[in-house]
Amino acid sequence: MDGDLPHALLALAPRLVARLIGPFAEVLLHDSLIWWPFLLSTLGIGAIAFCRRDGRGLRSLGEFRRRYLSGAIWAHSSAQADYAFYIVNGVLYPVIVAPLVLSGAFIARMLDAALAGGFGPALAPMLAPTLARIAYTVAFFLAYDFGRFVAHNLLHEIPLLWEFHKTHHSAEVLTPISSYRVHPVDLFVMQICPNLATGLITGIFFYLCAGTIGYYSFFGLHVGIAAFNLIGNLRHWHVWISFGPVVGRWLISPAHHLVHHSLAPHHMGTNRGFELAIWDRMFGTLYVPTAEESVRMGLGDGTDGEWHSVGRLYGLPLQYALARFGFARTSRREEKAP
After folding, report:
1. How many structural domains comprise the chain?
2. Contacts of 159 (CB under 8 A, 6+ apart)
3. Quick count: other Cβ atoms within 10 Å of Cβ 60?
């Protein structure tokens, strides 16, 4: 048996190496928000938007660099905690969260089978191929975006879940890596809801199309998701990009999400959507930013500055959650979720 141990360790080694290098390989993966073309589009669109607003030609680029590429943001202790947390979460996520999440494909297969059992198998597609592809592309995107909106609402409205969502809102500065400042419990909620929504849509279309269906893609992603990913990283950066009062009622701009992170009383709890503003409009949480506004970030509950380590980003939410059941004490000044 002792002789088998070295062989077992050798067999395990590639998996361990893959886990360790996984976070660093994200820039090479097209389905990652920090895929290098998306990072380049973030930098380019951010610089162009600022220079157009600033209007000083090449001098605007220097001001852009000083404001948004400075150590005040990227070397801030909050940002440094983001980098470390991103790596640790990237290693632990496949072990802790991924096995617990039902995939959209699994949900789709179950629904397809249930529909076939209840109404009989679809012997031929009920929709023309082109119409089916267009309809599925639109329906999938709407379901995906609504699922994320629902998950985000749950994280803000359910006090216990808010304790875990605090990890994300505790960021005092924002960089694209702040998108990954998410507690495993938060990750689970943010994945299960859109998976359920898209799984239901996919199952229905699988049945209607006799098992043959696909959506239009770009960069190897759903065309809508790929398009929004081009500006997706700007949601977590300080560059102010607003879509204006008209378009801002329909689409979530980077400025919408900056407002979402703001501690200003009239900003708190607003703009919980990701791509479409219609969900926030329907549920009364939309705030449409127009002129640039001052935004101060953090929790504002007396704990700002206490979240600058990986251990605290994981541990403080657990401590606060246990405190709600009387199993731990906290020194928090504020209990209310924004």
Report:
1. 1
2. 324, 335, 337
3. 17
**Model confidence pLDDT, tens digit, residues 219-246:** 889 999 999 999 999 999 999 999 999 9
For 278, the domain range is 26-324
pLDDT recorded at residue 334: 47
Asked if residue 10 belongs to a domain, the reply is no
Burial 297-314 (b: 16+ CB within 10 A, else e): bbbbbebbeebbebebbb
Residue 190 lies in a domain: yes
Number of neighbours of residue 96 by Cβ within 10 angstroms: 14
Give the tens place of pLDDT for each residue, 39-69: 999 999 999 999 998 888 778 999 999 999 9
> Does 1 reside within a domain?
no
Inside any domain, residue 308: yes
- Tell me the two tokens of residue 234: 């700007």
Structure confidence at residue 142 (pLDDT): 98
What whole-number distance in Å separates Cα of residue 144 and Cα of residue 141?
A: 5
124 Cβ contact partners less than 8 Å away, ≥ 6 residues apart: 210
Q: Decide: helix, strand or coil at residue 326.
A: coil
pLDDT tens-place string over residues 134-170: 999 999 999 999 999 999 999 999 999 999 999 999 9
Q: Provide the whole-model pTM.
A: 0.90
